Amino acid sequence: MTGVLAVGVVSALVLSTGCTTPGGRPTATGTTPASATPAGPTPTDPTSSAPAGSPAPTPTPTWDGQVRSLGDGSTSDTGPQPRQPKPERLKPGERPPQFVVFSWDGALEGDDRLFSRFRKLGVETNAQMTFFLSGLYLLPKSKRSLYHPPMHDPGAAAIDFATNAHIKDTLEQLRLAWLDGNEIGTHFNGHFCAPKHGGGGDWSTEQWASELDQAISFVTNWRTNTGFKDVPPLPFDYTKELVGGRAPCLEGQTNLLPAEKAKGFRYDASSPGEFQVWPVRKDGVWNFPLQLLPNPGTSSQNLSMDFNYLAGQSGATTEGDPGKFDDWEKATRDSYLAGFERVYNGSRAPLFIGNHFEDWNGGIYMQAVEDVMKSVCKREEVRCATFRQVADWLDAQDPKVLDQLRRLDPAQPADWSRLVR
After folding, report:
1. How confident is residue 67, by pLDDT bands cut at 50, 70 and 90?
2. Architecture of domain 4-21+96-410
3. Would you kindly state where each structural domain of the chain is located, as residue ranges?
4. Does residue 19 register a pLDDT over 50?
5. Contact yes or no for 188/215 (Cβ under 8 A)
6. Strands 98-106 and 130-133
7. Measured between alpha carbons, how far is residue 71 from residues 68, 79, 134, 222, 325 in Å?
8. Is residue 34's pLDDT more than 70?
9. Residues of the chain above pLDDT 90, percent
C-alpha cells in the first residue's frame, strides 16, 4: 500500500466520496436507473384503517407518553433523547475516556439494508454513532424541482433520488436510530464535487446557507413532499437536534463554517487529513476532522474513511480483483485498529472513522468496520459515541486541561496523575 497517503488525501477531495445509489452502489453521474425512479407519492396502505385523503394520523405516544407534532407532522417533540450520557469534567489524575466515533455519510436505507445492519450492531456493541443524512434522500424524484442547488439548475443532483420504498425505509431507520441514542447530522443535499460538478469548494457562505436551509426543509417537510399518510413522524425536532454536519467530498469548510455557526452548529466534520490529536475549535465551532491512520507494515498513512482505503487499493474502480479482497479487508481493519491502539495507549485523542453504506470490493470495508466495532467498543474506558456527545464532553472540560492534552503526541503515553489537574 505504498503511496496510500498521497492518494488518500487527494481522493477525499474528489467526486466519489458518498456518491451512492439507493442500492448502495456508487455513481459518478447522478443519473437514476429506471429501477430507482419513484412513481410519485405512495397511496395510503390499503391495510390501514385510515381512508385515502384523510389527515395524517395522530402520532403514537412514545415511552414517556408525550408527543407534540411539529409543522406538517413530519417531525415531533417527544422529549429528551434517550440513552444520552451526562458529560463530566475529568477529575485530577483521571485518564480521559477513549472516544471512537463511527459516522455514516448519506444515511440511506437501500436494498442492501446497511443502515439497519449497523444500527442493530450498534445496539449489540454498545456503540452510538452519527448518521449524516443527505436531505435529498427524503425528497421524491417527482418533487426534485423543489431543490435549488447552488450553481446548478433546479432539480440537479450528483446522487440518485430515492424510491418511495427507500424513503419509507430510511424514515423508519432514522426514527429507530434516534431512539437508540444515535445522532442525526447532515450531509447536505446534492453531493456536488469540484472540479467536475461545481462543488461546495466553490460556494459562498450564502450559497452554503441555502443548501443547509434546504437540507433541513426536506427533513421537516417530508410528509408534504411525499404524501405519505401511513408513516409516523420522526420523534425529534430536527431544527434543534441538528448541531453538525459533513460536507460532501470534504469541500468548502472555510465558507461553510459561518453558515453552520449562524444555525447554531456546535461542530463540523468536513476537514480532511489531520493527525490524531485532541480537537480545537475553528471560528467557534469544534473541528472534527477525518484523521491519518497508520498502515501497518508500511511507512504510509491513510485517511480514516472507507473511500480512501478503496482508492489506495483498487484505484477508481469499486470492483477490484476479488483475489485481493481478503488482503485488502485485513489491511483496512489493521489500519483502523492500529489507529485505535496508538491513541488508546497514548494520548487518548478521539478516533474518527468515516463511512458510506456501500458494497465496494465485495463489501470488505463494511466488514472491516464491523470487526473494529466488535473489537473496541466494549473495551475498558472506551466510548463509541456520537460527534455531539464528544462535543458535550469537550465543552465540560477545563480549557487548561484540553490545552495539555493537545500537546501530547498521539502515541505518547501520559502520566495522567501529573498531566490532568
Report:
1. confident
2. Alpha-Beta Barrel (3.20)
3. 4-21+96-410
4. no
5. yes
6. parallel
7. 10, 16, 20, 11, 48
8. no
9. 80
Alpha-carbon distance of 245 to 105, in angstroms, equals 9
Q: Tell me which amino acid residue 272 is.
A: P
- Which grid coordinates belong to 264? 447554531
pLDDT in tens, 238-282: 999 999 999 999 999 999 999 999 999 999 999 987 899 999 999
Closest of 74, 93, 185, 209 to residue 139, by C-alpha: 74
| Residue 19: closest CA among 270, 336, 318 | 318
Q: What is the per-residue pLDDT for 195?
A: 75
Cis peptide before 195 (omega within 30 of 0): yes
What gap in Å lies between CA 331 and CA 205, rounded to an integer?
Answer: 39
Q: Does 54 have pLDDT greater than 60?
A: no
DSSP helix/strand/coil, 170:
helix
H helices present in 315-386, as ranges: 325-344, 364-376
- The DSSP result for 251-310, as a single string, is --HHHHHHHHHHTT--EE----SB-S----EETTEEE---BEEE-TTSS-EEESBHHHHH
